[in-house]
Amino acid sequence: MTYSGRVHTSSIGNVDEWFQRDEITCASSAPIRLCCFPYAGGSAQVFQGWQSELGPDVEVFGVELPGRGRRFGQPLLHSLDELSNSIAKAISRLNTKPTAFFGHSNGALIAFEVARKLSLLGLDEPKLLILSAKKAPHLIQEKKLHTLPDEALLAELRKYNGTPEEVLASPELMGVFLPILRADFSLSETYSCGVGWKYKGTVALFGGASDQTVLESELLAWRQHMEGEVSLEMFNDGHFFINTLRSEVVRAVARELSEITLAA
């Protein structure tokens, strides 16, 4: 769970803790910035290489949450309200540039809430939200994964097919990984979706055609929280298509970003 590439970071206060980008291929002069929010248990490493694939017209920032990657050992956050406030304030201290958000699974909910916090702070919302593999926030959470005993939580993780069995079977690795997962699951499972605010920009929904944890209808339910245009693209795999169909996902992200850039 470390970021294996070299990184270039902002020098403004502690903003550099939140955002990482590839120093070799970074595109600081790009006309649009893409902030990428990882899934539960993930780090900025999930998005390593996206910069080179998206090219110089996009500046890719991987969002690094406390307790993983370069921030391993820092206290984990269990409140989405606290987390989204911190990220929104960090974004407000970056240089002004049109911004898009991509979030996968738990990262999609974080991206949505950060967009809401920016609006409440009187700041520009992102021009584009790409929400991937996450049901709409108002839908009832039937399971509270963050409260399950270890064995029950491991059984649930196996259903997602995103963690190698050798990792799940290692007490040492899971001793490190499970607290991070519990914190991340608690972000969404204790979250109460605010009422009265709707996102005004463009929304692209990504889903896995064989993902049994997030159905197409649950993705489309995001429309309830949007005022602008909403599109849906389904990928031919399960919940972690972001990894198994990486190049296909990045190409889809590039298409969505090109629409925003052309409009601008």
What this model shows, in words?
- The chain has 264 residues and is of the alpha/beta class.
- It contains 9 helices and 8 strands.
Topology (SSEs and partners):
Blueprint: E1 7-8, E2 19-22, E3 32-37, H1 50-54, E4 58-63, H2 80-92, E5 99-104, H3 106-120, E6 128-132, H4 150-160, H5 165-168, H6 171-189, E7 202-208, H7 216-220, E8 230-235, H8 241-244, H9 246-263
Parallel strand pairs: 3-4, 3-5, 5-6, 6-7, 7-8
Antiparallel strand pairs: 1-2, 2-4
Short description:
With 264 residues, the chain is α/β, with parallel strands linked by helices.
Structural class: alpha/beta
Helicity range = 25-40%
Strand content: 15-25%
Series of secondary-structure elements, N-terminal to C-terminal: EEEHEHEHEHHHEHEHH
Which strand order does the major sheet show? 1-2-4-3-5-6-7-8
Number of helical elements: 9
Biggest sheet record:
8 strands, mixed
- Taken from the alpha-carbon principal axes, the silhouette is globular
